[in-house]
Design a protein that fits this description.
404 residues, alpha/beta, TIM Barrel, 3 domains, 11-stranded mixed β-sheet, two-stranded antiparallel sheet, 14 helices, globular, binds pyridoxal-5'-phosphate, binds iron/sulfur cluster, Lysine 2,3-aminomutase
Length: 404
């Protein structure tokens, strides 16, 4: 890469996390198409990922050969301007257990608890658009991580509404099998029979499929899935696939087969991202290939308002169009993908489409998930706004109800 790009890379990666591994470099990126290659855009920094004034001030430090300490301190100062905590996740979704906050756990929807094991707070490579980037920049104030398995299990035992536990990160599949076992085995005990589904939110199938094939403890991970299935649990691998390219290597196909052989079901989700997967055919091809591999398309998310959103975000109007064009061109079996979905403060909001109601152009929206379960399924209307990128940018139309 030219020196000019390497400078941009150094500047951006001193603020936002950057990490890429040999599998992504050797197997996923088409270097003849870089820098426009979608996987290159997905993983490698670009100067437009930072607001121009932040880029310029950080760039000046690098050009002035500032010390790593000075650069780190300056980066820490600008992190707060990149909305590190969208949807107030840290403040509003952390449950209390025996009078103390249960750090590293989020409980937003009655049936599902998210666990962020402290040993899983990294990924095999990083996505430029990562919405969990504060987990990776070493700032303890904006990090969430659970280290005490017993406390988490005790909370689950005491909370009867919970049927699903979702391990997330970072990437829980970064954990050694022995660590994974420490987290999973207690959930398989008869006392927690109520926990029916164990989900793993992971991008390992994209970024390091060897996790399920040739890694030293790959077989141990699969045996853990086997055991959970044998105890009647549904094991759901919530795989993050951003682009059909990620499904092409022989290793990922072998990994998918091996996971499926345990009885676990793989579901696929990803955000819609400018420069990476912003054409309807990217999604149509992705969903069709997933179906052929026995993977269930699940969610198409809207990029969250955090980190490099200004570079990767798309207007909601464009997102609806891409989703609709893509879903139209695939078989009903691939139409299990719901989207575009915003994971917003009040819950998961689906942009169902655009309508004309008595001469007013509106977005029709629907709550797919809600903090207040009574609101699930509730529909509402917003004025059509071609520039809006998030729920906050929308205004109620025609006196519509609005989620709070
Ligand atoms: C998406 C999400 C879930 C899971 O929701 P499902 O619709 O059941 O997949 C759980 N907790 C949080 C905070 C989420 O964002
Ligand atoms: S896989 Fe998820 S948590 Fe990991 S870098 Fe990508 S978006 Fe972030």
């Amino acid at each position: 890469m030219p020196e000019e790009y390497l400078h941009d890379l150094r500047v951006v990666s001193s603020v936002l996390p950057f990490k890429v591994n040999e599998y992504v470099v050797d197997e996923l990126i088409d270097w003849s198409a870089a820098p426009d290659d979608p996987i290159f855009r997905l993983t490698f920094p670009h100067r437009d990922m930072l607001p121009p004034d932040i880029f310029d001030s950080m760039s000046a430090l690098h050009l002035g050969a500032a010390s790593p300490d000075v650069i780190r301190k300056a980066a820490r100062e600008v992190h707060g301007r990149l909305n590190p905590n969208p949807g107030a996740q840290l403040d509003t979704n952390v449950p209390t257990h025996r009078g103390e906050p249960l750090g590293g756990v989020q409980h937003k929807y009655a049936e599902t608890v998210l666990v962020f094991p402290s040993q899983g707070q990294t990924c095999h490579s990083y996505c430029g658009y990562c919405f969990r980037w504060p987990q990776f920049v070493g700032n303890a104030d904006i990090r969430q991580a659970a280290s005490d398995v017993d406390r988490v299990v005790s909370y689950l035992a005491a909370t009867p509404s919970v049927t699903d536990v979702l391990f997330t990160g970072g990437d829980p599949m970064i954990m050694r099998s022995t660590v994974l076992e420490r987290w999973i085995e207690p959930l398989l005990a008869p006392a927690l029979e109520r926990i029916r589904t164990i989900r793993f939110g992971t991008k390992a199938l994209s970024y390091w499929p060897a996790r399920f094939t040739t890694d030293r403890d790959a077989d141990d991970v699969l045996r853990l899935f086997d055991r959970a299935v044998a105890r009647g649990r549904h094991v759901a691998v919530m795989a993050h696939f951003s682009h059909p390219r990620e499904l092409e290597s022989p290793v990922v196909r072998e990994a998918i087969r091996r996971i499926q052989a345990t009885g676990a079901v793989i579901r696929a989700q990803a955000p819609l991202i400018a420069h990476v997967n912003d054409r309807p055919e990217d999604w149509a091809t992705l969903w069709q290939k997933l179906v052929e591999l026995g993977v269930v398309p699940y969610y198409m998310f809207v990029e969250r308002d955090t980190g490099a959103r200004s570079y990767f975000g798309l207007p909601l109007a464009r997102a609806v169009q891409i989703y609709t064009d893509a879903i139209r061109s695939v078989s009903g079996l691939a139409r299990t993908a719901r989207g575009p979905v915003m994971s917003a403060g009040p819950g998961k909001v689906l942009i169902d489409g655009v309508s004309d109601i008595g001469g007013t152009e509106v977005f029709t929206l629907r709550m797919l998930q809600a903090r207040d379960a009574r609101l699930v399924g509730r529909q509402f209307l917003a004025h059509h706004d071609p520039a809006a990128e998030w729920l906050d940018d929308l205004r109620p139309a025609l006196g519509s109800w609005w989620p709070q």
